[in-house]
Specification:
CATH superfamily: NAD(P)-binding Rossmann-like Domain
CATH architecture: 3-Layer(aba) Sandwich
CATH class: Alpha Beta
Low-confidence stretches: none
Structural class: alpha/beta
Number of domains: 1
Mean pLDDT: 94
Number of strands: 9
Largest sheet: 7 strands, parallel
CATH topology: Rossmann fold
Number of helices: 9
Length: 293
């Protein structure tokens, strides 16, 4: 029987974070559950002993909270196997009307919070775990990372940024460190998080029922998403247990449909615009010129 893994999970108060916490514990694993309000997990804390569940107060927008959480993880368990980088939220508002402070707050959580947890995780996997043991970082992104929707422009931008960061980080890590990064891109799942989207008042210039954001706002009212968060959790857990970690993991048939649409659009762009690139090379090409594949 495989030894239990130590999971570090952010945003465990609801949604995928809560679901993954419960499932990992039910499978005999150890969980470091982080969230801004630890009392929310009082029911789990009462059911599991301290050697199975460590609940920590962490606001991912605060570097000191992140650092302290990894120190506590090392002190309690001495190792770490999986980081489920989940803390984040969605904001529905036309780009033109979104206050700068709200947009920056979104990025502080969705991008900078996830990025700083990732950096701390890489350091832990390399410096604390046994040499070569490595670890897994599961970046909970979104289909918004490659397919923006009207009204979710800043949310999509934050996920685009996280995708780019994760892709770049994965390419920097030497194979000998055995650190795997998986960008998870869920479609529409019916979680507490999805029902708790922050909705700001519509910009006056966009109040027209025929406009894209008006139609989307109307669609979001009372929407019931088809995706089952418990099935999502079990699937991601199975992928981790299997040991073959994909670089990207779109989740849901809707996510695959949007990804295929993105691929088709990119292919069409190449075909439509390639004539503008065929004659852009310098005429004085010489030895040593940097070429990017």
């Amino acid at each position: 029987m495989a030894s239990p893994k130590v999971w570090f999970i952010t945003g465990t108060s609801s949604g995928f974070g809560r679901s993954m916490t419960e499932y990992a514990l039910s499978q005999g694993n150890i969980v470091v559950a982080t969230l801004r309000k630890p009392q929310v997990l009082s029911d789990l804390a009462a059911r599991y002993s301290a050697d199975k569940l460590l609940v920590l107060k962490v606001d991912v927008t605060k570097q000191e909270d992140i650092d302290e959480a990894f120190v506590r993880t090392r002190s309690a368990f001495g190792r770490l196997d999986v980081v489920f980088n989940n803390a984040g939220y969605a904001l529905l508002m036309e780009i033109e009307g979104t206050p700068d402070d709200r947009a920056r707050e979104l990025f502080e959580t969705n991008f900078w919070g996830a990025a700083n947890v990732s950096r701390a995780a890489v350091n832990f996997f390399r410096e604390v775990n046994e040499p070569g043991k490595g670890g897994i970082i599961l970046q909970v992104s979104s289909v918004g990372g490659f397919h923006a929707l009207p009204g979710f422009g800043y949310y999509a931008a934050s996920k685009h940024a996280l995708d780019g960061f994760s892709d770049g980080l994965a390419k920097e890590l030497p194979a000998s460190w055995n650190i795997n990064i998986c960008i998870i891109e869920p479609g529409a799942f019916h979680t507490n998080g999805s029902r708790g989207v922050m909705v700001l008042p519509q910009h006056l210039a966009y109040i027209n029922e025929s406009f894209p954001t008006s139609r989307f706002r109307q669609m979001m009212e009372g929407a019931v998403f088809e995706g089952d968060p418990e099935k999502f959790t079990r699937t991601v857990y199975t992928v981790v247990q299997g040991g073959k970690i994909p670089k990207r993991l779109p989740m849901g048939l809707d996510a695959l449909k949007m990804l295929n649409l993105r691929i088709e659009n990119l292919k069409a762009t190449v075909d439509e615009t390639k004539e503008w690139s065929v004659d852009l090379k310098r005429l004085d090409l010489g030895v040593g010129l940097l070429k990017i594949a």
